[in-house]
Design goal:
By secondary structure, this protein is α/β, with parallel strands linked by helices. It has nine helices and twelve strands. It has an eight-stranded mixed sheet, sandwiched between helices.
Length: about 260
């Protein structure tokens, strides 16, 4: 039976959140197969691979869906060489150098895949795919594509405070209880930058937080999320930099889907 969505409704929808989380899971497939039927993507849905980046674009009857998959090696994206924020005229403020470089590879090809027409666009992604979805939505909007909303799951921080302050489109950012990835890069840290010496780096999340608690139930309590962040980061430090299994398990898109399912009425 197809998974339902609520694309006709403006604003946040838990039904759409569950649907798009399943779309993120489908983005990990090289062939959509049964997922195309479950999501009612239609015959024109097509996966893409540009360099190391994967996802799919689907033109539904009432909307267009763009989904990005994550990566099994997110830690490689948090190294000094990629974590430096850089400027790009396509975005306000500064953004993570690695994510910026990835979107520079993706954008010309992605734009060519977008169907012509006025159907609203939903953009989604998990993990690294959430960071790419955040940037892609801005590029699509600037190219006059009607982006309705962005839904991300376990996304790292993408840009600096100026980027966050200028990001105006609806963006719903899901964080599953023990997931550590949404807490990197750190909000501020010192980093040696070639030609600049030691620099204080700032990152800030964008969008509306949607926190999934221990029981899987949805809350927008930022304090609860902050308390969990401090616990996770302390645990990471105490463990000598090794990530606890719970932080890995709660980052999996399958566990986001399981938690969201509990919130469906």
């Amino acid at each position: 039976m197809p998974i339902d969505n609520d694309f006709v409704t403006d604003g946040f929808s838990i039904k759409t959140a569950y649907y798009l989380a399943n779309a993120c899971a489908a983005a990990y497939l090289d062939v959509l197969g049964d997922s195309a039927v479950e999501l009612a993507l239609g015959q024109d849905a097509a996966t893409f691979q540009f360099a190391d980046f994967h996802g799919f674009v689907a033109a539904l009857e009432q909307a267009v869906l763009v989904a990005f998959r994550g990566t099994d090696n997110l830690e490689n994206w948090m190294t000094d060489g990629r974590i430096i924020p850089v400027s790009n005229p396509a975005y306000p403020g500064q953004v993570h150098q690695g994510f910026n470089a990835a979107m520079e590879v993706l954008w010309p090809n992605l734009r060519g895949l977008m169907p012509v027409g006025a159907r609203p666009i939903w953009v989604t992604g998990h993990s690294l795919g959430g960071a790419l979805a955040t940037l892609a939505a801005l590029r699509l909007q600037a190219a006059d594509f009607p982006v309705r909303a962005v839904y991300t799951y376990g996304s790292p921080r993408v840009g600096d405070p100026a980027f966050a302050a200028s990001y105006q489109m609806p963006n719903y950012r899901f964080v599953n209880y023990n997931d550590l990835v949404p807490h990197v890069p750190s909000e501020q840290f010192l980093l040696g930058v070639p030609g600049q010496g030691i620099r204080l780096i700032h990152y800030q999340h964008i969008g509306t937080l949607k926190h999934l608690g221990r029981d899987g139930l949805l809350t927008e309590d930022a304090n609860a999320a902050e308390e969990r962040k401090e616990f996770l980061l302390h645990s990471l430090t105490a463990a000598g930099g090794s990530i606890e299994p719970e932080a890995i398990n709660d980052h999996r898109i399958a566990n986001y889907i399981a938690a969201l399912k509990k919130n469906l009425s």
